[in-house]
Amino acid sequence: MGAPLTPSQQQVLTFLREFMTRHRFAPTAKEIATRFGIAEKNGFYYLDVLERKGYIRRTKHRPRRIEFPGEPPSRSPVRVPVLGRVPAGNPLEAVEEVEGELFLDPSLLGDGEVFSLRVKGDSMVDAHIRDGDYVLVRAQQNAEAGEIVVAVLDGEATVKRFDRQRGKVRLEPANPAYPTIVVPADSPSFRIAGKVVGVYRKF
């Protein structure tokens, strides 16, 4: 292990372990600060010190993911926020508010920031995405042709297969009962919110 810890640093390390045992994910710097009655910047300071001394290892882009070197890798589920419903039919207003959370095996998620949206509609059934499913979405602003994305158009979101042809974006359904949505590729009202990397279904 690294350099010895001061009493206060040891207290924070103990708190990290207890918090992760109870919640299955790591506390934020703000939660550390609240627990010990200190400024949030000092919460970051303790995390930095503990990592520099070799007592913890943080995962880039996943502030809720902390490992303790020298111990078996944690298989604790990762918290994935559910940000609202997104249609797999006609676009519907995307509500970017946390309305729940999923706890999933980290091996299912890969790298990057991942969030979830609950699907409403059946336009992607041939891609095995059904009404009521939770799509797991890696936040990113670009996609390759053929990938399934969460696209936002005029402030409304939908799940579709992405394609680009002759300066236009095509959002293809996976159900012949639904039309393709076509928009100019440079339209300021269009953006990609993320790439669908998985589907979670409750029985």
Fold blueprint:
Blueprint: H1 7-23, H2 29-36, H3 40-52, E1 57-59, E2 62-67, E3 78-87, E4 92-93, E5 100-104, E6 114-120, E7 134-139, E8 148-153, E9 156-165, E10 168-172, E11 181-184, E12 190-200
Parallel strand pairs: 3-6
Antiparallel strand pairs: 1-2, 3-5, 4-9, 6-7, 7-12, 8-9, 8-12, 9-10, 10-11
Helix pairs in contact: 2-3
Question: Can you characterise this structure?
Answer:
The structure is a single chain. The chain has 203 residues and is an alpha+beta fold. It has two domains: 7-67, Orthogonal Bundle (Arc Repressor Mutant, subunit A), CATH 1.10.10.10; 78-200, Umud Fragment, subunit A. The chain has three helices and twelve strands; from the N terminus they run H-H-H-E-E-E-E-E-E-E-E-E-E-E-E. Strands 3, 4, 5, 6, 7, 8, 9, 10, 11 and 12 form a ten-stranded mixed sheet that branches. 26% of the residues are buried. The model has no long low-confidence stretch (mean pLDDT 85).
Fraction in helix: 10-25%
Give the C-alpha Rg: 21 Å
Largest sheet: 10 strands, mixed
Helices and strands: which structural class?
A: alpha+beta
Termini distance?
A: 45 Å
CATH class of the largest domain: Mainly Beta
What's the β-strand tally? 12
Number of domains: 2
